[in-house]
Amino acid sequence: MAQIDDVELTERLFLKGYPFGKYSPRPNDPASMAVTPLRKPLPACTVALVTTAGLSLPDQRPFDATIRMGDTSFREIPATISPQLLEMHQRSWAFDHTGVLRDRNLAFPLDRLREMVERGAIGAIAPHHYSFMGSVAGPRKLIHETAPEVARRLVADAVDVVLLTPV
Amino acid sequence: MCNQSVGLIQRVIEYAGMSTVSISLLREITEKIRPPRALFVPYPLGYPLGEPNNAALQTRIMQSAFALLTRTDAPVLESFHP
Predict the structure, then answer these.
(1) pTM for this model (two decimals)
(2) So what's the ipTM on this one?
(3) Can you give the residue ranges of every domain in chain A?
(4) Which is deepest, A52, A87, A135, A162, by most CB within 10 Å?
(5) What average pLDDT score do residues B22-26 get?
(6) Which residues have a Cβ under 8 Å from the Cβ of B21 and sit 6 or more positions away?
(7) Residues in chain A within 8 Å Cβ distance of B45
(8) Which residue in A has a C-alpha nearest to residue B71's C-alpha?
(9) How far apart are the C-alpha atoms of A31 and B81, rounded to whole Å?
C-alpha cells in the first residue's frame, strides 16, 4: 500500500506542504462537482484510457521534465498501437518505474480493454487515448487548457466511459 | 502529484459529459481532490493495476473500477480487496 511517507524525503516534504486542499471541489464551481450518470450499460459503452504515466510514442515529442511547475501537455495515443512501444518520460522518481517498463498495461491497459471487447464486457475501444506526465505542481493550465482539450477530443470520438490511472 | 493530476483531469472529463472512474494509489490525496469515482488499490506508486504481466489481476482491478460507474453518490472512493 502506498503512503506519502514512502516517497523520498525531498518529495515528501514538498507533498506535505503542498496545498492539496486548494484544489478540492468548491460548491460555487460546478465544473469541480460534476457527476455524469452512466447513460447505457457498460457492454454498450465506448471506453478510453487517460494516464499520467508520461507515456509517449517514439515519434512524439517526449514530455519535458525541466519545466519547473510541470509539463501540462498531453500526447494522443491511437488505439491501434502495441502498448509496449510506448516510452515513459517522467519527471518524478518518487515511484518505481520498473513495473511499467516491464508491462505498459500496468498503467495503460490497452490489451486488457481488447480482451474485454472480445468478451463483450465493454462495447468498443475509443480510437484515441491520452497520456499526461503527472508531476504538475502548478495545475492551472492543466485544469483550464489541456484537460478541457482532451475532454473535447474524447467527446468528438463519442466516448462514454474514461478510466484514469496515476503512477 | 500524479494522483492529484488524475483527479483534476477526471473532474474536467466528467464535467464534459462522460462517466469516469480512476485508480488511486494515495488515498489521502484522492480524499482532498474528490474526483467523482475512484478505486483505491493497495499497491506501490507506479503499480496502479497491481502487477506487471498479471493480466488476471489487472482485469479484476479494472472490473472493480468499472463497477463503480453506476454510482452517482459522488465522491465515491472504494477500496480494492485483492
Answers:
(1) 0.95
(2) 0.98
(3) 4-19+39-165
(4) A52
(5) 96
(6) A161, A162, A163, A164, B36, B37, B38, B39, B65, B66, B68, B69
(7) 2, 6-7, 94-96, 167
(8) A37
(9) 31
